[in-house]
Amino acid sequence: MSTAEAVETNGFPKKAAGMLQEYVGRVNSTRDALHDLLNESIEARSQFGTGSPLALLKRDLLLAEIGSTVPLHNAVRRFIQRVSQHLEHEAVEDGNRWELELRIADLEQSLEGLSRQSEAIGDWAHRE
Q1: Quick one: CA dihedral 28, 26, 93, 91, positive or negative?
Q2: CA distance 33 to 62
Q3: How far apart (Å, rounded) are the C-alpha atoms in residues 115 and 124?
Q4: First-last CA distance in the chain
Q5: Please, what is the angle between helix 53-89 and helix 94-127, to 10°?
Q6: Which stretches of the chain are DSSP H helices?
Q7: pLDDT grade, residue 128 (50/70/90)?
Q8: How big is the CA angle at 99 (ends 92 and 31), to the nearest 5 degrees?
Q9: Cα separation, 2 vs 53, whole angstroms
Protein backbone atom coordinates (compact mmCIF):
# COMPACT_ATOMS: atom_id res chain seq x y z
CA MET A 1 0.00 0.00 0.00
CA SER A 2 1.38 3.40 -0.94
CA THR A 3 1.62 6.33 1.45
CA ALA A 4 -1.24 8.09 -0.35
CA GLU A 5 -3.45 5.03 0.06
CA ALA A 6 -2.53 4.71 3.73
CA VAL A 7 -3.40 8.34 4.44
CA GLU A 8 -6.68 8.12 2.55
CA THR A 9 -7.77 4.85 4.12
CA ASN A 10 -7.12 5.94 7.70
CA GLY A 11 -10.03 8.37 7.42
CA PHE A 12 -8.02 11.51 8.16
CA PRO A 13 -9.59 13.77 5.49
CA LYS A 14 -13.16 12.90 6.44
CA LYS A 15 -12.52 13.11 10.18
CA ALA A 16 -10.60 16.40 9.89
CA ALA A 17 -13.25 17.94 7.60
CA GLY A 18 -15.97 17.06 10.07
CA MET A 19 -14.05 18.50 13.00
CA LEU A 20 -13.19 21.68 11.11
CA GLN A 21 -16.86 22.17 10.28
CA GLU A 22 -17.90 21.42 13.87
CA TYR A 23 -15.50 24.00 15.25
CA VAL A 24 -16.67 26.68 12.83
CA GLY A 25 -20.08 26.17 14.45
CA ARG A 26 -18.65 26.28 17.97
CA VAL A 27 -16.62 29.43 17.32
CA ASN A 28 -19.62 31.13 15.71
CA SER A 29 -21.86 30.09 18.65
CA THR A 30 -19.32 31.62 21.02
CA ARG A 31 -19.36 34.83 18.99
CA ASP A 32 -23.18 34.88 19.16
CA ALA A 33 -23.09 34.33 22.93
CA LEU A 34 -20.68 37.24 23.37
CA HIS A 35 -22.94 39.42 21.26
CA ASP A 36 -25.94 38.48 23.41
CA LEU A 37 -24.02 39.28 26.61
CA LEU A 38 -22.95 42.59 25.12
CA ASN A 39 -26.57 43.47 24.38
CA GLU A 40 -27.55 42.54 27.94
CA SER A 41 -24.77 44.74 29.29
CA ILE A 42 -25.81 47.67 27.11
CA GLU A 43 -29.44 47.25 28.15
CA ALA A 44 -28.54 47.13 31.86
CA ARG A 45 -26.45 50.29 31.52
CA SER A 46 -29.18 52.16 29.71
CA GLN A 47 -31.91 51.11 32.15
CA PHE A 48 -30.06 51.32 35.45
CA GLY A 49 -26.95 53.43 34.81
CA THR A 50 -23.32 52.56 34.20
CA GLY A 51 -22.44 52.19 37.89
CA SER A 52 -25.48 50.17 38.91
CA PRO A 53 -24.85 46.76 40.47
CA LEU A 54 -26.68 45.01 37.61
CA ALA A 55 -24.71 46.87 34.94
CA LEU A 56 -21.44 46.10 36.71
CA LEU A 57 -22.41 42.44 37.05
CA LYS A 58 -23.31 42.22 33.34
CA ARG A 59 -19.98 43.84 32.46
CA ASP A 60 -18.07 41.42 34.68
CA LEU A 61 -19.90 38.43 33.18
CA LEU A 62 -19.11 39.71 29.70
CA LEU A 63 -15.42 40.12 30.52
CA ALA A 64 -15.31 36.65 32.12
CA GLU A 65 -16.86 35.13 29.02
CA ILE A 66 -14.28 36.87 26.85
CA GLY A 67 -11.54 35.41 29.03
CA SER A 68 -13.05 31.95 28.74
CA THR A 69 -12.64 32.06 24.96
CA VAL A 70 -8.83 31.99 25.22
CA PRO A 71 -8.52 28.20 25.73
CA LEU A 72 -10.91 27.57 22.83
CA HIS A 73 -8.97 29.94 20.62
CA ASN A 74 -5.65 28.30 21.51
CA ALA A 75 -6.96 24.75 21.00
CA VAL A 76 -8.53 25.60 17.64
CA ARG A 77 -5.35 27.34 16.50
CA ARG A 78 -3.32 24.21 17.40
CA PHE A 79 -5.81 21.98 15.58
CA ILE A 80 -5.58 24.16 12.47
CA GLN A 81 -1.78 23.92 12.62
CA ARG A 82 -1.87 20.14 12.91
CA VAL A 83 -4.24 19.70 10.00
CA SER A 84 -2.18 22.12 7.90
CA GLN A 85 1.02 20.25 8.76
CA HIS A 86 -0.61 16.97 7.82
CA LEU A 87 -1.63 18.42 4.45
CA GLU A 88 1.89 19.76 3.95
CA HIS A 89 3.74 16.56 4.79
CA GLU A 90 1.40 13.71 3.86
CA ALA A 91 -0.08 12.58 0.57
CA VAL A 92 -3.75 13.53 0.47
CA GLU A 93 -5.98 13.18 -2.59
CA ASP A 94 -6.51 16.54 -4.33
CA GLY A 95 -10.27 16.72 -3.75
CA ASN A 96 -9.83 16.07 -0.04
CA ARG A 97 -6.93 18.53 0.13
CA TRP A 98 -9.00 21.31 -1.43
CA GLU A 99 -11.92 20.64 0.88
CA LEU A 100 -9.68 20.72 3.94
CA GLU A 101 -7.92 23.88 2.81
CA LEU A 102 -11.28 25.62 2.34
CA ARG A 103 -12.56 24.40 5.70
CA ILE A 104 -9.36 25.60 7.36
CA ALA A 105 -9.84 29.03 5.78
CA ASP A 106 -13.45 29.11 7.00
CA LEU A 107 -12.41 28.23 10.54
CA GLU A 108 -9.56 30.74 10.51
CA GLN A 109 -12.00 33.45 9.40
CA SER A 110 -14.41 32.58 12.22
CA LEU A 111 -11.59 32.48 14.75
CA GLU A 112 -10.26 35.85 13.59
CA GLY A 113 -13.78 37.27 13.92
CA LEU A 114 -14.02 35.94 17.47
CA SER A 115 -10.65 37.49 18.36
CA ARG A 116 -11.56 40.88 16.93
CA GLN A 117 -15.00 40.84 18.49
CA SER A 118 -13.57 39.86 21.89
CA GLU A 119 -10.98 42.62 21.70
CA ALA A 120 -13.52 45.26 20.69
CA ILE A 121 -16.02 44.25 23.36
CA GLY A 122 -13.27 44.11 26.00
CA ASP A 123 -12.09 47.61 25.04
CA TRP A 124 -15.67 48.89 25.20
CA ALA A 125 -16.34 47.27 28.59
CA HIS A 126 -13.20 48.75 30.11
CA ARG A 127 -13.94 52.24 28.74
CA GLU A 128 -17.43 52.47 30.10
Answers
A1: positive
A2: 10
A3: 14
A4: 63
A5: 160
A6: 3-9, 12-48, 53-89, 94-127
A7: low
A8: 130
A9: 65
Asked whether 102 and 20 are in contact (CB, 8 A), the reply is no
**How many Å is the maximal CA-CA distance in the chain?**
69
Q: What is the pTM of this model?
A: 0.85
Q: Determine the Cα–Cα distance for residues 45 and 56; give it in Å rounded to an integer.
A: 8
Between CA 88 and CA 106 the distance in angstroms is: 18
At 1-42, the pLDDT tens digits run: 445 544 454 789 999 999 999 999 999 999 999 999 999 999
**CB 49, CB 55: distance < 8 Å:** yes
Count of C-beta atoms within a 10 Å radius of residue 107:
25
CB 73 within 8 A of CB 111: yes
